[in-house]
Design goal:
The chain is 48% helix and 19% strand. The protein has 8 helices and 14 strands. It has a 5-stranded antiparallel sheet, with helices on one face. A 5-stranded mixed sheet has the order 9-11-12-14-13, with helices on one face. A two-stranded antiparallel ribbon has the order 1-2.
Length: 471
Amino acid sequence: MGLVTNFGMKTRLSLRKRIIYWSIGLVGIVITVLCTTSIWAVYQQLLNELDTRLTNEATDIQRSLTVSNGHLLINEDIEWEEEHHQYEMASSIYILILNRDKSEYKRSENIAQKTFPIDMLQFSQKKPFIDTIKWYDTQTRFYTQPLHLATKHMGWIILAMPLDKIFTMLTILSKHYIILFPLCILLGIGGSIFIASRTIKPIQEITDKASLLNHNNLNEPLPIPNTNDEIAFLAVTMNELLNRLRNNFDSIRQFTAHASHELKTPLSVLELELEDLEENLDKTSDVNISPRIRNEIFRMAKIIDDLSILAKADTEHIVLDLQEIWLNDILFSEIERLLPVAKESAVALKIGDTISASIMGDGYWIRVMLSNVIDNAIKYSPSHSTVMCSMESNNSHISLIVSDEGPGVPDDIIPDITKRFYRSSVVSTTPGSGLGLSIVDWVVNNHNGSLQFSNQDPHGLKVSLTLPRLS
């Protein structure tokens, strides 16, 4: 049995794909956050620079004004004659001077025909206000500063500047990001695949090696990657576990082999003594020994023989004598041998469709395999039922099929019935050791075949022994 098992569960993404997808997702999130925050930071920086410029312009405008007889006067025209106050352009700054009663005193030439959204602005005699308002379909920054001259509040200076230039720069920056974003994602995908492949490679090597391990080759260590990380530590830990398992398996094998060997002799002596006792009782007394005693001794001897076989199989002390054998001849021979057993159980043992076909195999073990399967079918079949043996074939394989009319086996425990000493509750009252099908499974596997069980309708079990055909 392999150490790596596929459990029946919903299919999940492999670790490699999860690393790639998570890495790409993380890269995408990081790039998106960086792009968004950088655009926002640039926008804030440009807005701060614009506000600083409006503040400086308001200071220059205030210097160009003076008070005479309580009225505002312009004493320097040079500030008002600058291009960005005279013409409509990307860097235009609009000027509006209000009196204390918010009546208009003067405006710059570049807004001669425009109406300021005075009702939407904030005014204070102590501090300036900055507002962003949609004005003539354009987002515009308004700077409202109280005008103090000769320690008196004379009105307000209002400056306005469209944000088109800022939005144009942000649009250009966004277009660059739109181009760079897929390039970064592609680089992230390539990097993720590379990193995931490098990370998963030692794990895959360990998995591939572990999938080939069974109780016969636990002495083959798993590869330890030269990475000095958690994966290497995992491989070392698993090798230590394999060593402990191998020691436990060896102890069990030795115990089984020694126990079966040691028990054979006293059982043989017990059988001989029982035969002598029966002969003496037949001559001197009318007392008979219960058949149950002989049956139980026979059963114990069969269990010990089976354990001995499995112990030798585990330690690979059994060498198959492979040669060309004809399955149909072996099938007929085993059926003829087991006919008295079937007759004693009132079970009809019949032969169905057969063919003449040969395989490369060990005749002795093929007979053991068939004998166990047919004997099981007879044992678990009710009286006056039928056990049918047949053969099927295709170009590459031959199947020996044994069908009975017994209780069958629940579908959920079919994978367990070849385990040693496993017995279904359905047949727990029928004498048996639970070792026969383990031997059958070993024989089939060592002949590169397959063993299948299926329940029949309305009842009964069908056993298919499929072996490679000799071409």
